Fold these 3 entries.
Entry 1:
Amino acid sequence: MKRRISLRTKSSLTGFLFTLPALLGTAAFFVVPFGITLSLSVRESMGSEKFVGLKNYRDVLNSAAFRLAAKNTFKFFGVALPCILILSLLIALLLFRNLKKYDIFCTFFVFPLVLPVSSVVLFFQIVFSDLGVLNGILERLGLHAADWTGEQAFWVLLILYLWKNTGYNVVLFLAALNSVPKELYEAASLDGAGWWKKLTRITLPMIAPHTRFILVISIVNLFKSFREAYILFGDHPDQSIYMIQHFMNNNFANLNYIRLSVGAALVFLVIFALVGLLLGLREDEGNAASLKMKPCTASCAARNFTKGKKQAADGLESAAAKGRGMK
């Protein structure tokens, strides 16, 4: 007698077969190489099988080049993340009020999304090079030309990151603002709430989950900004923008795969910790909300029912009294 397969099992098996190619590709190109990277990070050398524990990690953490790279990376994080979140939210609020009136802002920030990275970097080279447009304007005004690729390279990279990624964040914030029910703003207006109270009591709490997602996307894009920095300033830039990606790229060029593996593992740990922290905050907020919204007991439900019934009866009596008065 043949054994029948349930519909639920058949559906699960079908779904697994459809996702199997993607799972195999992820394992082959991401999971397995990352496992090899972790394995290399605890070996003595590339061709050696000797296990050295955390010795390579200690050597890298004590390296002056890695410390400089880590310092600049966290500095860039600390400046760029608040800037892009605040700027994106302000632009999204401005566009949300009257999108047609501010088309020029939308075009300016969304335009870099459709351009290749090399084209964006070429534009910045024209503007910020030693003989570029900006230095030409400064000289015509009688001012000294600035070293935009040297001492001011950090701010050039920050402007490039903001211009390249703000448009995407604005689109995400606009989607978040459109998800807020309009009735909440109408009720707040009836209560006499101003724009600041609407922003802090309605808008920001309602878009908090979207803001966390945008924060994660911004962190990922921060690590991707190495492409622009490498094309714009080369593999040995000014010390103010020498970041962990430069450290990893230079070790790859020098065939020092052990230090490269350690750097990749440390970057993974940082990203994992940041994302885990954001998810932990979300879970804590969910638990706090569930504690505030405790289920009503039977006695509580009975009291609420009696109270609602009394209010309905009072409403009917007042309506009837008004009707008799009109007659």
Note: The CA atoms of residues 157 and 229 lie 7 Å apart.
Entry 2:
Amino acid sequence: MRRRLALLLTACALTACAPFSGQRHTAPSHAASPSPSAAASPVAARMLPGMPPLLDPNDLYAADRPGNLSPVVRDFPSRVYVPNTNSDTVSVIDPATYKVIDTLRVGRQPQHVVPSWDLKTLWVNDDLGNTLTPIDPATGRIAGPRVPVHDPYNLYFTPNGRYAVVMASADRQLVFRDAHTMAVRKVVPVSCYGVNHADFSPDGRYFIVSCEFSGELLKVDTEEMAVVAKERLPMRGAMPQDVKISPDGHTWYVADMMADGMWVLNGDTFGPPRLLHTGKGCHGLYVSRDSKYMYISNRGEGSVSVLDFASGRLVHKWHIPGGGSPDMGGVSADGKVLWLSGRYNSEVYAIDTTDGHTIAKIPVGSGPHGLAVYPQPGRYSLGHTGIFR
């Protein structure tokens, strides 16, 4: 758990934000074109204005195939960026050698490393430092001064690239900001506690947010920037974490570390969910490069469960030798390695996605959390540690 619950009960003043001095926001190049079926799909007719068209109406992750790097990121060195919440650093790992090659000093309590919508910047969420630290992924170095942003526990981007959405957990707010300058555009107070993770609908019109400390979910209208529905999870003490939508866009999964599994629901109807048990401390959710499987970290038992999307069933469970605390991470560009932070073990795990064996345990700083594998395939980023479409 990233901070004392008491912090959530303290309201903090939202600070003004200075513009980042880097390159202006531009849309990334779209190497692939949508299929005729995608262009004619019902989803295409109602998409969020300005959102890139779907490549495949049956697979939201069609742009994320192995090695399918955007021209924007094609020449970036392959690295794993690990925020160490207790050390106030980011460890930089070379995935070719499984060794830390650099340590970057960032703001106080970095929680996640988040790729920008246009793929050009990695934003380190310095939660208690109330800043975002920009990293240039072309060099792996800090790119400029920290940008003042209050309570940036996590960070997302609307699918049209217009807004950044700050999950201001302690402030109990969703803060819509300019996706480039981070200037505030709208502050949305929420009634739940601990907003932290999210994902977007196929048409980009809404997103679903988990509220960790009150066991609730929010449904948010993207264009109106307004909460339109709220649902309490049907378990006392529920603690929802990561959120992920299925490739076909019909099913939503919400990890719950106290329920030891995922809540499965229909996002459109936002009806009562059912629970699929995975393992103790269910936490992070990551889609395979072929869109067939989802990797599920079980932080409380040191394992990874594998869900088969087609059947809706768990087909594997991989255990980390000696145990561990697998938390957040991502999949390598070629799809062969799942990278996860070991939150309470000061290490990072590299896991082979063909058979689940642990390739390496890499020592890093204290409290590693939302690491980013970068670059990854995809046309644009929706945020977190790397949700690409």
Note: The mean pLDDT is 92.
Entry 3:
Amino acid sequence: MEAFAFHNPTQILFGNARIEELGGILKNDGIRKCHLIAGGGSLRENGAYERIQTSLKAAGIELTETWGVQANPTLDKVKEIVEQLQNSGSEAIIAAGGSSVIDTAKAAAAGCFLKDPWNAFTEKEKIEKALPIYTVLTLSATGSEMNGNAVITNTQSRQKWGMFSPLLYPKLSIIDPTLQSTLPFKQTANGAMDAIAHILEFYFADEKALSTLAIDDALLRTIVEMTDRLHYNAQDIVARGNLAWSATLALNGLSGVGMNGGDWGCHGIEHAFSALHPEIAHGEGLGVIFPAWIEYLSEKTPSQFLRWARCVWNEDTVALAVRRFRNKLHDWGLAGSLRELGIKQNELSTLLDMIMIQPTIGGVFKLNKEEVRSLLMLAF
């Protein structure tokens, strides 16, 4: 097991009725004025918005708001929010929503102190300061509520890029599983696949990290089991809570301890899918590329993927495990191919150019352009 450092500064409040504590915590932190960032109307429908307002009002905290963050959030929206933050004098951000909202909040929190928010993604500017971020999670997927990552799409350049800063870990995140009980199952399944993908990006990096792999085995099995239960009964609060916490653990640092940073090739590939077609959900795109990636690479080094087959899917061969994986995603109603995602064959060359901005992609397996071309054809 490789040497590592592990630290996560985010405080988690998990469970029902924790939103009511938000105002008091902000007050104790010396915050007098906050800016709420949200997506669509679901925050009002599930009652979270009213509860946030009530809690902040009771603590005497002023609130300004921005709504309309979309899935696969955009740089244009980030810039709009940065201008609002600078004009309003807000001292902190409340991101109430899923990963798109939280990632937008992170980019804006840093962007307030940069010449251009996109410079954080291109590394033209270093993040040295950011507004504090508090989150109320309404869709479990990326673990953004407990990490310093953010992914934003520059629609003009068709680049969907990520960035990280330790200054962007939320100060506090509230995970109330009851807020997710009204989600359409497709959104739950997309989020589950996203969480699975985060674990898989680390899973094949180092077979010596046995304790981390044991945690990852348990998380992967739990995510699948809880999603199955929610497919049957969306109001299963035990399943909802366990799925939510598993998705957080999938990318809060724990799942990658001792894994040399993981591979992340599949994420880079999928980012091209949803940059070219913003209507593609990130989790669903990952559900297409990851089984194909495992199938493709396991033909070269099958032993590297055998533990996953046995410990997660209880199969003796990688081929059978990949089949089980694909069948499960099909049962959840997710796409099984690039074609089913709406990608056309004549767009594959464009995708390849978008993906291969470096000679290779992936931190562990390092696929070259011809290998990625073959992978795309396998996934098509």
Note: The longest helix spans residues 210-232.
